[in-house]
Amino acid sequence: MGKRSHWREHPAHALRVDHGFRLESFDAAATPGFEGAQKHAERLMERRGADLAELQERLYAHGRAGGDRSMLLVLQGMDTAGKGGIVRHVLGMVDPQGVASRGFGVPTEEERAHHFLWRIDRALPQAGRIGVFDRSHYEDVLVVRVHGLVPEAVWQGRYSEINEWEAQVAERGTTIVKCALMVSPEEQLNRIEERLERPDKHWKYNPGDLDERAHWPAYMEAYQAVLDRTSTPSAPWHVIPADNKWYARLAVTELLASALESLELGWPQADFDVQAERERIARLRSKEV
Amino acid sequence: MGKRSHWREHPAHALRVDHGFRLESFDAAATPGFEGAQKHAERLMERRGADLAELQERLYAHGRAGGDRSMLLVLQGMDTAGKGGIVRHVLGMVDPQGVASRGFGVPTEEERAHHFLWRIDRALPQAGRIGVFDRSHYEDVLVVRVHGLVPEAVWQGRYSEINEWEAQVAERGTTIVKCALMVSPEEQLNRIEERLERPDKHWKYNPGDLDERAHWPAYMEAYQAVLDRTSTPSAPWHVIPADNKWYARLAVTELLASALESLELGWPQADFDVQAERERIARLRSKEV
Lengths: 289, 289
Hints:
The structure is a homodimer of 289-residue chains. Chain A has twelve helices and five strands. In chain A, strands 2-3-1-4-5 form a five-stranded parallel β-sheet, with helices on both faces. By secondary structure, chain A is an alpha/beta fold. The first copy, chain A, has one domain (11-288): P-loop containing nucleotide triphosphate hydrolases (Rossmann fold, 3-Layer(aba) Sandwich). The longest helix of chain A is centred in the N-terminal third of the chain and has 27 residues, at 38-64. In chain A, 48% of the residues lie in helices and 11% in strands. The A-B interface holds A 61, 64-65, 84, 87-88, 91-92, 94-97, 99, 101, 103, 132, 134, 185-186, 189, 192-193, 196, 199-200, 202-205, 207, 210, 213, 267-270, 272, 274, 277-278, 280-281, 284-285, 288 and B 61, 64-65, 84, 87-88, 91-92, 94-97, 99, 101, 103, 132, 134, 185-186, 189, 192-193, 196, 199-200, 202-205, 207, 210, 213, 267-270, 272, 274, 277-278, 280-281, 284-285, 288.
């Protein structure tokens, strides 16, 4: 059957962080829940991409009709984990008018003068949109924790601040889909090296990425704390093995599509009299002939 | 030859507004400069879409490397002319991270309290990005003129204000591509009717569109004034026949791709020592084995 999904277990379950989840025993090359090969994944992704495009249009239509629902995809991951590729290949399947993509780098001076959630809150998607954060407020308990950029008492308090803020955001109508893309150190080195060997990728190469690699164990510890402390019912974490790009892209496509499906949005009802409008058009036509 | 372009004359020339251009003798069903059929256009669009995606990535890379170039696509047109379809199908071919799409509806109270260019200026694309305006500052000399929303002396002054502002924007590194999508009144009525007959399109149906249609001649006069007075060397207008959606989409793809090509952006040079980085990676590998 061409219509087989090849998902043995839905990624919303297979990838969701459960109590007791340990990053140290995580296999970044695995394909949890999926029993097909790459070619099956690619075919399936095309099909679900078409679904995603229609679901996004319904969300947009609802926003235009006064609905308050929106979607926020939060992408975290070590350098080269494929966050940009997710935006390009997954969100690239839907209408750009419905997507607001935002990257969070080192905070500007203005941003540093505010609470760490200030710049994040301002970037939330409008009703009807899919927002994408390439890195996010989680950097404030990841790079900031690893490098001790603020005192421990400050970053320790941020986990509960994040949980409270996300609960409020969800309460106001934004479905939050959090994905941590996990690449193995070996695959990361391959990807860094590939950027070095291709002049058209040099602009993506940053010598600092190799420096950050030296802090791998500290980053894993910081990620483990994020997963332990900020995977909540209103905004659960999904940990996505990212050594196989095709798997990671398919998994995020499915997570987004199923999150949109769960909103059960039909097309908005007409707020005008359809028959009366038909008659207006008929009168216009008869005048023009 | 599968590689034939089917353009007899490049759309940058075929569609560019020349002195003496008259909208009243314009054929919205024509396909200026293009001698192929729809199927040729679709094949060509796919090919040029791939070019566009790479050109956009180069622009983005330049922005990341400190370059100041950006691109702004200004879309104007009567209701149903296909502005949204252009964003969806043309800009949908490139990485969403590189595109900032913005629609300009009726100004908010805050926007009305400012100069008409205030909200426009704030929406300009960052360096490295392609900005898209679905409607724009031209509404301030179109709907505003047709409905007399400000005194004539005010809107009369806006043409030169727009020209000066656009010249400055271009001077700062933004290539402005202005496209007026022109649909015939007959085709517009067909498209409005189609929205009415499809419940999944009701959210796009606005009874006010038929009211606006009654002002068609006044709109054409206002568009003619825009084309006469704001097609400048730094920001020329292209008038795009839009009864055939496939033609309009192909033409805008080609206009954008050729505008990007004219920037002649290579990939940014490495700002690091490639050989030294290779050696760092080799040392890391030898340690890991």
